[in-house]
Amino acid sequence: MDMPTRRRLLEGIRRAHQADAAYTAAGRARTRAAKATAAHARITRDPQLQGASDELEAAQAVHAGLVRREQEARAKVHRTFTAARAANRVLAALYTPHAPGRGTGGGSRSDVAAALLGELAAMPRELVLAADKILVSTSGGKDSLVCGHRVVTLAAEAGCLDKVVMVHADLGEESEWPGVRELAQRQAERWGVEFIVVQADRGLLGLVEKRGMWPDAARRLCTVICTNSSR
């Protein structure tokens, strides 16, 4: 299997995983909306509200909003289900010629991804040469330093140092340690590679507040942020 084929398969796997995750999230949102609608429906039937027209009208307005929210959630479930099926069909078309008879379900898909990544890890020079750009996420810490050094060394040996871009995600003044951005930039300058800073318009805590949940393993934040970049 050549390098372009491996890359296309990995991209297909990524899109299929992403589509499945969106469908799962939409299903959970629909369930929450349905529960909220049902709970508030009981409130609107409260006998104490029947004699208070203003309170009843306000409760009915809230309930109507919840009904619309549930309808939108159901529509999103349908859209994401269709998108997930389409992404999995594309992946199957890419994968079948290389492994006839094997499926592209969640388990086998992860196995394929692991195998492909293992093959690519064994040929770093070829991977560097095939890349258009090599983005390295850096916090300025020890793990980022080792990763950056390894990538820069490989790229320099392949004559592709100009492909490397160090990317630092600024978490905002209320969350970022002082001097972190400057440290990451100095590291990139020492290696002689491009340095880019990406920053959300409201900072880490603002994004947490917007989503209404604190990030954890099941509700990741860093992979869903839409960022603006500045050099």
Report on this structure.
The protein has 231 residues and is of the alpha/beta class. 65% of the residues lie in helices and 9% in strands. It contains eight helices and four strands. A four-stranded mixed beta sheet has the order 1-2-3-4. It is flat, with a radius of gyration of 24 Å. It starts with a helix and ends with a strand. The model is unreliable at 225-231 (pLDDT under 50).
Concise description?
With 231 residues, the protein is α/β, with parallel strands linked by helices. 65% of the residues lie in helices and 9% in strands. It contains eight helices and four strands; from the N terminus they run αααααβαβαβαβ.
Reconstruct the topology from this structure:
Elements: H1 3-44, H2 47-50, H3 53-95, H4 106-121, H5 124-130, E1 134-137, H6 142-157, E2 164-170, H7 180-191, E3 194-199, H8 203-211, E4 228-230
Parallel strand pairs: 1-2, 2-3
Antiparallel strand pairs: 3-4
Helix pairs in contact: 1-3, 1-4
What ranges have pLDDT less than 50 throughout 5 or more consecutive residues? 225-231
Q: List the secondary-structure elements in sequence, H or E.
A: HHHHHEHEHEHE
Could you say which overall geometry the principal axes of the C-alpha atoms support? flat
Number of helices: 8
Please give a handful of descriptors for the protein shown.
flat, disordered C terminus, four-stranded mixed β-sheet, 8 helices, 9% strand, 231 residues, alpha/beta
